[in-house]
Amino acid sequence: MHYSFDIERGNFTDAGHASASVKRTLKQLNVEPASIKRIVVALYEAEINAVAHAYGGKIDVEIDPEKIVMIVADEGPGIPNVDLAMTEGWSTASPKVREMGFGAGMGLPNIKKNTDELKIDTKIGVGTTLTMTVYLNA
Amino acid sequence: MNSSRFVLYLYDKNQIDNPTIMKIKEIAKLLDGRILGCQDNFEMEFHKAFSSDLMSDVLKVSFDDTLLITGLCNNQTMRTADMADVSVVIIGRDKRADEEMLELAEDSGITIIESPYSLFKISGILFSVGIMPLY
Prior knowledge:
heterodimer; A: alpha+beta; Heat Shock Protein 90; 5-stranded antiparallel sheet; 5 helices; globular; B: alpha/beta; 6 strands
Protein backbone atom coordinates (compact mmCIF):
# COMPACT_ATOMS: atom_id res chain seq x y z
CA MET A 1 0.00 0.00 0.00
CA HIS A 2 1.31 3.41 -0.89
CA TYR A 3 0.29 6.81 0.47
CA SER A 4 1.57 10.28 -0.44
CA PHE A 5 1.14 13.61 1.32
CA ASP A 6 2.34 17.11 0.50
CA ILE A 7 4.19 19.27 3.03
CA GLU A 8 3.54 22.99 2.98
CA ARG A 9 6.07 25.37 4.48
CA GLY A 10 5.07 26.84 7.83
CA ASN A 11 1.60 25.29 7.77
CA PHE A 12 1.29 24.28 11.40
CA THR A 13 -2.47 24.01 11.07
CA ASP A 14 -2.17 20.90 8.93
CA ALA A 15 1.11 19.56 10.34
CA GLY A 16 0.43 16.10 11.67
CA HIS A 17 -2.26 15.34 9.11
CA ALA A 18 -0.14 12.66 7.39
CA SER A 19 0.81 11.02 10.69
CA ALA A 20 -2.83 10.97 11.85
CA SER A 21 -3.89 9.42 8.55
CA VAL A 22 -1.17 6.74 8.71
CA LYS A 23 -2.16 5.98 12.30
CA ARG A 24 -5.76 5.33 11.28
CA THR A 25 -4.64 3.06 8.43
CA LEU A 26 -2.32 1.04 10.67
CA LYS A 27 -5.09 0.62 13.24
CA GLN A 28 -7.41 -0.70 10.53
CA LEU A 29 -4.67 -3.14 9.52
CA ASN A 30 -4.52 -4.36 13.15
CA VAL A 31 -0.86 -3.50 13.51
CA GLU A 32 0.35 -3.92 17.09
CA PRO A 33 -0.25 -0.67 19.12
CA ALA A 34 3.39 -0.39 20.27
CA SER A 35 4.58 -0.48 16.64
CA ILE A 36 1.93 2.05 15.60
CA LYS A 37 3.15 4.44 18.25
CA ARG A 38 6.80 4.16 17.17
CA ILE A 39 5.84 4.69 13.53
CA VAL A 40 3.58 7.69 14.03
CA VAL A 41 5.88 9.41 16.53
CA ALA A 42 8.79 9.17 14.06
CA LEU A 43 6.66 10.34 11.14
CA TYR A 44 5.12 13.18 13.13
CA GLU A 45 8.52 14.49 14.28
CA ALA A 46 9.75 14.32 10.67
CA GLU A 47 6.63 16.11 9.46
CA ILE A 48 7.07 18.87 12.04
CA ASN A 49 10.76 19.22 11.07
CA ALA A 50 9.88 19.60 7.40
CA VAL A 51 7.09 22.12 8.06
CA ALA A 52 9.37 24.06 10.39
CA HIS A 53 12.59 24.15 8.38
CA ALA A 54 11.89 23.45 4.70
CA TYR A 55 10.20 25.29 1.84
CA GLY A 56 7.94 22.37 1.01
CA GLY A 57 8.15 18.67 0.40
CA LYS A 58 6.51 15.31 0.13
CA ILE A 59 5.87 12.29 2.32
CA ASP A 60 5.71 8.81 0.81
CA VAL A 61 4.64 5.88 2.95
CA GLU A 62 4.89 2.28 1.79
CA ILE A 63 3.28 -0.38 3.95
CA ASP A 64 3.78 -4.09 3.43
CA PRO A 65 3.26 -7.02 5.81
CA GLU A 66 6.87 -7.00 7.02
CA LYS A 67 7.71 -3.33 7.28
CA ILE A 68 6.72 0.28 6.80
CA VAL A 69 9.02 2.64 4.94
CA MET A 70 8.43 6.38 5.30
CA ILE A 71 10.28 8.85 3.09
CA VAL A 72 10.06 12.52 4.02
CA ALA A 73 11.74 14.55 1.27
CA ASP A 74 11.93 18.32 1.55
CA GLU A 75 13.26 21.20 -0.46
CA GLY A 76 15.07 23.34 2.04
CA PRO A 77 18.30 24.56 3.56
CA GLY A 78 19.67 21.09 4.32
CA ILE A 79 21.39 20.10 7.55
CA PRO A 80 24.95 21.49 7.80
CA ASN A 81 26.08 19.07 10.50
CA VAL A 82 24.06 15.86 10.86
CA ASP A 83 25.96 14.67 13.94
CA LEU A 84 25.14 17.92 15.70
CA ALA A 85 21.50 17.71 14.60
CA MET A 86 21.31 14.22 16.12
CA THR A 87 22.37 15.64 19.49
CA GLU A 88 19.52 16.14 21.96
CA GLY A 89 19.02 19.81 22.70
CA TRP A 90 20.63 21.23 19.55
CA SER A 91 18.14 23.22 17.48
CA THR A 92 17.87 25.98 14.90
CA ALA A 93 14.09 26.27 15.26
CA SER A 94 12.33 29.62 15.01
CA PRO A 95 10.28 31.16 17.85
CA LYS A 96 7.14 30.18 15.88
CA VAL A 97 8.16 26.50 16.04
CA ARG A 98 8.85 26.82 19.76
CA GLU A 99 5.39 28.33 20.28
CA MET A 100 4.01 25.12 18.81
CA GLY A 101 5.73 23.07 21.51
CA PHE A 102 8.67 21.87 19.43
CA GLY A 103 12.13 23.16 18.56
CA ALA A 104 13.95 21.84 21.62
CA GLY A 105 16.33 19.69 19.60
CA MET A 106 14.51 16.42 20.22
CA GLY A 107 13.15 15.71 16.73
CA LEU A 108 15.89 13.68 15.05
CA PRO A 109 16.89 11.86 18.28
CA ASN A 110 13.21 10.91 18.78
CA ILE A 111 13.02 9.71 15.17
CA LYS A 112 16.14 7.57 15.57
CA LYS A 113 14.84 6.08 18.81
CA ASN A 114 11.52 5.08 17.22
CA THR A 115 12.76 3.60 13.94
CA ASP A 116 14.72 0.44 13.12
CA GLU A 117 16.59 2.14 10.29
CA LEU A 118 17.11 5.84 9.65
CA LYS A 119 18.91 7.23 6.62
CA ILE A 120 19.53 10.96 6.27
CA ASP A 121 20.47 12.37 2.87
CA THR A 122 21.03 16.09 3.00
CA LYS A 123 22.55 18.69 0.72
CA ILE A 124 23.06 22.31 1.72
CA GLY A 125 20.71 24.62 -0.17
CA VAL A 126 18.87 21.72 -1.80
CA GLY A 127 17.04 19.75 0.87
CA THR A 128 16.89 16.75 3.14
CA THR A 129 15.42 13.30 2.68
CA LEU A 130 14.76 11.07 5.66
CA THR A 131 14.14 7.40 4.98
CA MET A 132 12.68 5.72 8.04
CA THR A 133 11.98 2.00 8.30
CA VAL A 134 10.11 0.19 11.02
CA TYR A 135 9.81 -3.60 10.88
CA LEU A 136 6.40 -4.90 11.88
CA ASN A 137 6.03 -7.82 14.31
CA ALA A 138 9.75 -7.56 15.02
CA MET B 1 14.00 14.55 55.37
CA ASN B 2 15.12 15.43 51.86
CA SER B 3 12.58 15.87 49.08
CA SER B 4 13.29 12.57 47.28
CA ARG B 5 12.80 10.59 50.50
CA PHE B 6 9.57 12.52 51.13
CA VAL B 7 8.27 11.58 47.68
CA LEU B 8 9.17 7.93 48.25
CA TYR B 9 7.30 8.05 51.56
CA LEU B 10 4.17 9.36 49.82
CA TYR B 11 4.36 6.61 47.21
CA ASP B 12 4.76 3.95 49.89
CA LYS B 13 1.76 5.13 51.86
CA ASN B 14 -0.68 6.16 49.21
CA GLN B 15 0.17 4.96 45.77
CA ILE B 16 1.85 1.58 45.78
CA ASP B 17 -0.50 -0.08 48.30
CA ASN B 18 -3.67 1.78 47.33
CA PRO B 19 -3.29 3.48 43.96
CA THR B 20 -5.71 6.31 43.38
CA ILE B 21 -7.89 5.83 40.34
CA MET B 22 -9.94 8.72 39.03
CA LYS B 23 -12.43 9.32 36.26
CA ILE B 24 -12.79 12.42 34.11
CA LYS B 25 -15.70 14.03 35.94
CA GLU B 26 -13.98 13.69 39.33
CA ILE B 27 -10.79 15.19 37.91
CA ALA B 28 -12.64 18.10 36.28
CA LYS B 29 -14.44 18.84 39.56
CA LEU B 30 -11.18 18.99 41.50
CA LEU B 31 -9.66 21.36 38.94
CA ASP B 32 -12.74 23.58 38.57
CA GLY B 33 -12.55 22.42 34.97
CA ARG B 34 -14.75 22.38 31.90
CA ILE B 35 -15.07 19.15 29.90
CA LEU B 36 -14.90 19.44 26.09
CA GLY B 37 -14.05 17.33 23.06
CA CYS B 38 -14.73 13.59 22.97
CA GLN B 39 -17.43 12.54 25.44
CA ASP B 40 -16.74 8.79 25.18
CA ASN B 41 -13.96 8.50 27.76
CA PHE B 42 -15.97 9.08 30.95
CA GLU B 43 -15.57 5.52 32.21
CA MET B 44 -11.81 5.46 31.65
CA GLU B 45 -9.68 5.28 34.80
CA PHE B 46 -6.50 7.28 35.35
CA HIS B 47 -3.85 6.99 38.05
CA LYS B 48 -0.85 8.79 36.53
CA ALA B 49 -0.16 12.21 35.01
CA PHE B 50 2.57 13.93 33.03
CA SER B 51 2.99 17.73 32.79
CA SER B 52 4.77 19.30 29.83
CA ASP B 53 4.63 22.20 27.41
CA LEU B 54 7.26 20.53 25.21
CA MET B 55 5.53 18.21 22.77
CA SER B 56 8.70 16.27 21.90
CA ASP B 57 8.90 15.25 25.57
CA VAL B 58 5.26 14.15 25.43
CA LEU B 59 6.14 11.95 22.44
CA LYS B 60 8.87 10.22 24.46
CA VAL B 61 6.67 8.71 27.18
CA SER B 62 4.00 6.04 27.41
CA PHE B 63 0.50 7.22 28.24
CA ASP B 64 -1.38 4.18 29.53
CA ASP B 65 -3.94 5.39 32.10
CA THR B 66 -2.11 8.72 32.11
CA LEU B 67 -3.34 12.30 31.95
CA LEU B 68 -1.47 14.98 30.01
CA ILE B 69 -1.32 18.36 31.75
CA THR B 70 -0.17 21.24 29.56
CA GLY B 71 -0.35 24.98 29.06
CA LEU B 72 0.20 24.62 25.32
CA CYS B 73 -3.11 25.29 23.64
CA ASN B 74 -3.01 24.85 19.86
CA ASN B 75 -3.59 22.28 17.11
CA GLN B 76 -0.26 20.60 17.76
CA THR B 77 -1.32 19.85 21.33
CA MET B 78 -4.12 17.72 19.90
CA ARG B 79 -1.98 16.18 17.15
CA THR B 80 0.70 15.27 19.68
CA ALA B 81 -1.88 13.83 22.05
CA ASP B 82 -3.22 11.71 19.19
CA MET B 83 0.25 10.39 18.25
CA ALA B 84 1.14 9.72 21.90
CA ASP B 85 -2.14 7.86 22.61
CA VAL B 86 -3.28 10.42 25.16
CA SER B 87 -6.99 10.17 25.99
CA VAL B 88 -7.34 13.19 28.27
CA VAL B 89 -5.58 16.55 27.95
CA ILE B 90 -5.85 18.98 30.85
CA ILE B 91 -5.22 22.51 29.57
CA GLY B 92 -4.22 24.87 32.35
CA ARG B 93 -3.61 28.60 32.79
CA ASP B 94 -7.22 29.41 31.85
CA LYS B 95 -6.57 28.84 28.14
CA ARG B 96 -9.39 27.93 25.80
CA ALA B 97 -9.40 25.34 23.04
CA ASP B 98 -10.59 26.78 19.71
CA GLU B 99 -12.95 25.15 17.22
CA GLU B 100 -10.19 23.44 15.25
CA MET B 101 -8.75 21.93 18.41
CA LEU B 102 -12.18 20.67 19.45
CA GLU B 103 -12.71 19.12 16.03
CA LEU B 104 -9.30 17.39 16.19
CA ALA B 105 -10.06 16.21 19.74
CA GLU B 106 -13.37 14.68 18.70
CA ASP B 107 -11.87 13.04 15.60
CA SER B 108 -9.06 11.57 17.70
CA GLY B 109 -11.16 10.48 20.69
CA ILE B 110 -9.52 12.94 23.06
CA THR B 111 -11.29 14.59 25.99
CA ILE B 112 -10.17 18.09 26.99
CA ILE B 113 -10.46 19.52 30.50
CA GLU B 114 -9.91 23.29 30.58
CA SER B 115 -8.85 24.52 34.00
CA PRO B 116 -8.31 28.08 35.23
CA TYR B 117 -5.42 26.92 37.44
CA SER B 118 -1.67 27.07 36.78
CA LEU B 119 0.12 23.85 35.85
CA PHE B 120 1.82 23.84 39.25
CA LYS B 121 -1.53 24.02 41.03
CA ILE B 122 -3.14 21.38 38.79
CA SER B 123 -0.19 19.05 39.31
CA GLY B 124 -0.20 19.74 43.06
CA ILE B 125 -3.91 19.05 43.45
CA LEU B 126 -3.73 15.79 41.51
CA PHE B 127 -0.57 14.69 43.33
CA SER B 128 -2.16 15.45 46.70
CA VAL B 129 -5.07 13.11 45.99
CA GLY B 130 -2.72 10.33 44.93
CA ILE B 131 -2.30 10.62 41.16
CA MET B 132 1.24 9.39 40.43
CA PRO B 133 3.93 10.90 38.24
CA LEU B 134 5.34 8.81 35.38
CA TYR B 135 8.81 9.10 36.91
